Amino acid sequence: MSARSLTRACRAELAESPAAVVRRLRVERACQLLEETSLPLKPVAMRVGLGDPSTLYRVFLRQLGVAPADYRARFSALKT
Fold it and tell me: Which residue in 26, 37, 69, 73 is deepest, having the highest Cβ count within 10 Å?
């Protein structure tokens, strides 16, 4: 499948570009890790493919409107 065909198919089926789908899935996984583990932000960013905490921070702000640390504070299952 060509890149153009993939883009058209993603937009038709998911109403998102392939890059947006990947970014959304990475954020969903990061949310899961922040909720269920006590991993520091750097390993979370690396595990989901965002590279470093600053990229994780920017993507979280853009997608969710909240910083990763604030997200963890609100939704962590590991609250003490």
Answer: 26
